[in-house]
Design brief:
The complex is a heterodimer.
Chain A lengths: L5 H9 L12 H6 L4 H30 L8 H23 L1 H7 L3 H5 L2 H12 L4 H28 L12 H16 L9
Helix pairs in contact in A: 1-8, 3-4, 3-7, 3-8, 4-5, 4-7, 7-8, 8-9
Chain B lengths: L1 H14 L11 H4 L5 H24 L9 H23 L1 H7 L10 H9 L6 H31 L1 E2 L2 E2 L1 H7 L10 H4 L1 H24 L4
Antiparallel strand pairs in B: 1-2
Helix pairs in contact in B: 1-7, 3-4, 3-6, 3-7, 4-5, 4-6, 7-10
The chains are: A mainly alpha, B mainly alpha.
């Protein structure tokens, strides 16, 4: 993976390999928090921030501590610990500096810990053997890609609030169908660049 | 006791199914539903992790301080995931490679956390263990149905052996089965799950309307 420019990875993570629409990561919060644009923006920003920070931290921990001591099999436990600590820090920070954001996001912040996208990015960067810069940009790009997807979804759902949907399909059902159509649209990007 | 056991089973498998009703935890497994066998392995791994974490947390429920209980739960869950990961690497290395990061992602599967919070942390070890197994199965069977159709339409095969191709040839279509590439890719997964939820909800609504339980 050495030959790939970090920017290629960055844009690929946003469009062609969107963490949500291609890898299905971060679905839970995507389905439940995409009703309003305002909360979607807050959560999207939080996810982007946490992803960027944790991919950098986890990179250091994995290659400086876990790998040299041959304890890389406990990486799941370590990674999830780092993610939980970062989220906790962010929560305290937001609580201190932005009351309205805290009220809106407060309940979702703990959800970020179990947002699969965060752990997924850390695991992907290890499996794909990215270097440090590549990892950080991959994290940031994935976060922005997730942000883009949830923002688009919130916009669509706000517009179709009044529309008639078959009763059995209301809520998550129709959201998944919209997500499917969005995923099809994103496949259109896949001709630009392909990362594995 | 017998009543509550059958209640748990019925709830987890259909009435309160984690996937169709609660829409939890599709992240880590939907991605591997384009091949049936991978989904089966994933489902087994998930059931194992859910059941044993539920048992452990239920046993420790009076010892864990409430303030740090989330952290403790995550650590217990991830320990069991590490066991599954090492086991898969040792016995089925090919599948372990195909599943890639998704085995590790069982940790962040919301179903497990959800069951731990809602059930295991306030119930007896026995019923918590049963609830863990049943949630795991309730989750897996839905995904197995999805995987079955995605593999059948996408690759024209069941469990890796081609089925539709010979079938099409035998009824006189010379080019055989045209694979639905769409089904293998991500949108296929979204649409299959949406259709499944649609059908499941319709059946539930029908049952309610006709006064059956």
């Amino acid at each position: 993976m050495e030959h790939l420019s970090p920017w290629v990875i960055f844009f690929a993570a946003i469009f062609t390999g969107n963490i949500l629409l291609t890898y299905f990561l971060g679905m839970c919060s995507f389905l439940s928090v995409s009703k309003q644009i305002k909360t979607a923006v807050g959560l999207g920003l939080a996810v982007t921030f946490v992803l960027t920070v944790t991919s950098a931290l986890n990179y250091f921990i994995y290659y400086q501590i876990l790998k040299p001591f041959h304890i890389d099999y406990i990486r799941y436990i370590v990674f999830i610990g780092v993610i939980a600590a970062t989220v906790q820090l962010l929560e305290m920070f937001i609580e201190r500096y932005s009351e309205p954001l805290y009220i809106n996001l407060g309940i979702f912040l703990p959800l970020i810990t179990v947002n699969c996208a965060i752990l997924g990015v850390s695991l992907f960067m290890i499996i794909r053997k990215y270097n440090f810069i590549q990892s950080v940009l991959f994290g940031a790009g994935s976060g922005l890609g997730w942000f883009l997807a949830i923002l688009a979804m919130a916009g669509i759902r706000e517009r179709m609030k009044e529309d008639k949907v078959p009763s059995a399909l209301q809520g998550p059902g129709i959201t998944l169908i919209i997500a499917g159509i969005m995923a099809m649209a994103f496949i259109g990007f896949s001709g630009i660049v392909q990362i594995q | 006791m017998k009543d509550s056991i059958s209640q748990i089973i019925k709830d987890d498998l259909w009435k309160n199914n984690p996937v169709t009703v609660q829409i939890l935890g599709i992240c880590s497994t939907l991605a591997v539903t384009n091949i049936f066998l991978n989904t089966l392995i994933m489902g087994l791994g998930l059931t194992f992790v859910t059941a044993f974490s539920a048992l452990t947390i239920s046993l420790l429920r009076n010892v864990i301080p409430p303030r740090v209980r989330m952290m403790v739960q995550v650590l217990i869950i991830s320990s069991f995931v590490v066991i599954v990961d090492i086991f898969l690497k040792a016995y089925v290395p090919n599948i372990s490679k195909a599943l890639g990061p998704y085995v590790g992602l069982i940790i962040t599967n919301c179903i497990i956390m959800g069951r731990m919070e809602a059930f295991a942390s306030s119930n007896e070890p026995g019923s918590a263990f049963l609830d863990g197994i049943m949630s795991g199965i309730g989750y897996s069977w839905v995904l197995l149905v999805i995987a079955f159709f995605r593999e059948l339409l996408g690759f024209g095969s069941i469990l890796g052996c081609p089925v539709l191709d010979p079938l099409m040839k035998s009824i006189g279509v010379s080019e055989g089965w045209v694979q639905w590439a769409f089904m293998i890719m991500a949108p296929g997964g979204f649409f299959m799950l949406a259709s499944f939820i649609w059908i499941a909800n319709s059946i539930s609504a029908h049952q309610v309307a006709h006064g059956k339980k």
